[in-house]
Design goal:
This protein is α/β, with parallel strands linked by helices. The protein has 3 domains: 187 residues, no CATH class; 84 residues; 181 residues, 3-Layer(aba) Sandwich (Rossmann fold). Helices cover 48% and strands 9% of the residues. It contains 26 helices and 13 strands. A 6-stranded mixed β-sheet has the order 9-8-5-10-11-13, sandwiched between helices. A 3-stranded antiparallel β-sheet has the order 1-2-12, with no helix packed on it. Strands 3-4 form a two-stranded antiparallel sheet. The longest helix has 18 residues. The radius of gyration is 27 Å and the shape is globular. The two termini are 43 Å apart. 48% of the residues are buried.
Length: 561
């Protein structure tokens, strides 16, 4: 106790000693607690799947949900707007945390909160898969009953979509989470809340969803009935693999039925989800490709290569152009972490599930690399002197990023640092962990840049790290090497414990000795826990969430401001 108090008085409190404003973190050290609104945002963007090195998934999830509930009780409309904004902007790798939080908001005690949450359902639940997740969360979590308010909210999902979009949903997503389109339609009864022509296309579409019937009296009517004809085409395509005597027993590839399927797909822009497995060959994949969404393309690059679709130069050019189009990537809400996972899977030449293998196409791997950077939102370079520091300690190497089972948090942090530094010219990149010395755990990386492929960057970071967490190291390193910096940007889980001084004290020491009192520090949170290495009351520090697609622009605006 004497040594602890003496160290504290002399400003040498270790990270295992509390200093004013800090709380015990999950690693046995002390960090600053983020408020529940920051924790709420971390949960929405990063999720809690897989937990962390120090805290199990279930406990971490419960802690985050406690923060969500607290925010809903403090200011429900503000919480709903945060859910809506994160989801619509495509900031998160997965939409599930936003859907779950919205389900909680629809179950809130406050009437205004519930009404705003009901109104946000079509914005957050944009596909039938999203909607079925939403209903499953409410039903399985026993959050609330299916009263008129919730029924109306689900009905709005149907009634506010165009007939064309809704027909596509009925074609592509016939059943999810144990709920069929018919189940959800009957649960919400959309016809109760809308006026429509008794013989119009929406009425005919609702009859199909509710009863599975498609009458023929609209077959020759106007273009407004085209979505119904598309439904009929999808149904006939799904029935093409019905066996007859002269068909091969298991596989219809290369047969007349396969060519007929490809023709139907092209004529009606049908998705692969309605193509029978026995008919999924080069002809059908090639037919689906022109109208496929970017998410589908990302998930099926292996299949497109396996079936030799990308051997055709025009098809390869088409895919490369789609993958590297920044506007299309952002419009489709393709998240950079999803691109990183797609690149890792594709480059491995083997699917995560199943036994399919392929020889990766070099142009596709390069296009995925470019797509990763294109999926972020950038502003002008700051022109400032920056230090990007990536935590490669054991807790960062032994936890997965945002539920991506094959991507470690430190790998995600490394490539995020590459994205943040892409437009900058005057910066230095380091990795750090505690290795029984103040600066022995700092690895200077002048040979790593955004010009390299992401998989090469990750390999470089894998060559070191795995020690204790000491988030004071970047500041001490800068002081030891007399670096004149405008800002530090640290990518970490904030589970710091191993150092002989707190990160904030190291930052203060740097500012004082270098006579740079305005040097800024940014903590980029890579895990949805409740901690930060920086105090909330310092105007020159910023807390932000890793893998928010606006990270480069947020950093730039803060550093330049």
């Amino acid at each position: 106790m004497f040594d602890t108090l003496r160290n504290y008085i002399n400003g040498r409190a270790t990270q295992r000693d509390a200093i004013p404003g800090t709380v015990a973190n999950s690693a046995g050290g002390y960090s600053y607690a983020v408020d529940n609104w920051q924790r709420f945002e971390r949960f929405l963007i990063l999720g809690t799947t897989g937990g962390t090195y120090y805290i199990k998934e279930r406990k971490l999830t419960q802690e985050n949900l406690d923060a969500v509930v607290d925010c809903l009780e403090q200011d429900g409309p503000r919480a709903v707007e945060l859910i809506r904004n994160v989801s619509i902007a495509g900031k998160a790798p997965k939409n599930d945390p936003a859907i779950f939080a919205l389900a909680l908001a629809c179950s809130a005690n406050n009437e205004i909160t519930r009404q705003q949450a009901f109104a946000a359902v079509p914005d957050v639940c944009r596909t039938f898969t999203h909607l079925s997740h939403f209903i499953a969360f409410i039903k399985e979590g026993k959050m609330r009953g299916f009263g008129r308010g919730l029924m109306r909210a689900i009905a709005r999902w149907y009634n506010e979509q165009s007939v064309d979009n809704l027909a596509y949903q009925a074609i592509k997503y016939q059943s999810r989470d144990g709920f069929s389109q018919q189940d959800v339609y009957r649960l919400s009864h959309p016809v109760r809340f809308i006026k429509m022509d008794a013989d119009g296309p929406r009425r005919a579409l609702y009859d199909f969803i509710a009863k599975g019937t498609l009458s023929a009296d609209w077959a020759d009517r106007g273009d407004e009935f085209k979505p119904l004809r598309r439904l009929a085409a999808a149904r006939s395509l799904a029935q093409l693999d019905n066996p007859v005597a002269d068909d091969p027993p298991k596989n219809l590839q290369g047969t007349k039925k396969s060519l007929d399927a490809a023709n139907l797909i092209r004529e009606w822009n049908l998705p692969m989800e309605v193509v029978p497995t026995t008919l999924r060959d080069k002809d059908t994949y090639e037919a689906v490709l022109p109208s496929a969404g970017l998410t589908w393309i990302l998930r099926n690059l292996g299949n497109l290569t396996l079936h030799e679709v990308l051997d055709v130069e025009n098809n390869l050019d088409f895919v490369v152009n789609r993958l590297t189009n920044a506007q299309q990537l952002q419009k489709a809400r393709v998240h950079p972490l999803a691109i990183l996972q797609a690149m890792r899977t594709y480059a491995s030449g083997k699917g995560v599930k199943g036994s399919n293998t392929w020889k990766p196409n070099r142009r596709i791997v390069d296009a995925l690399d470019a797509a990763f950077y294109a999926s972020f939102k950038y502003v002008q370079p700051t022109g400032k002197r920056l230090l990007f520091a990536v935590d490669v300690s054991g807790s960062m190497t032994n936890a997965t990023a945002s539920g991506m089972t094959d991507i470690a948090v430190f790998e995600a942090a490394a490539v995020l640092a590459m994205a943040a530094s892409l437009v900058e010219k005057n910066f230095e990149l380091i990795a750090f962990d505690y290795s029984h010395g103040s600066s022995k755990g700092v690895y200077n990386l002048p040979d790593v840049s955004a010009k390299q492929r992401l998989d090469d960057v990750v390999k470089r970071f894998k060559s070191f790290g795995g020690g204790g967490t000491d988030c004071a190291l970047p500041f001490q390193y800068a002081l030891d090497n007399k670096l004149h910096l405008d800002a530090f940007v640290c990518f970490t889980d904030s589970e710091t414990w191993a150092g002989n001084q707190h990160a904030i004290n190291a930052l203060k020491s740097y500012r004082r000795h270098m006579k740079l009192p305005e040097t800024k520090a940014i903590n980029v949170a890579m895990v949805a826990n409740g901690f930060s290495t920086l105090p909330p009351n310092d105007p020159n520090t910023l807390e932000c969430v890793g893998f928010d697609t606006t990270i480069p622009s947020v950093i730039s605006l803060f550093v330049s401001g």
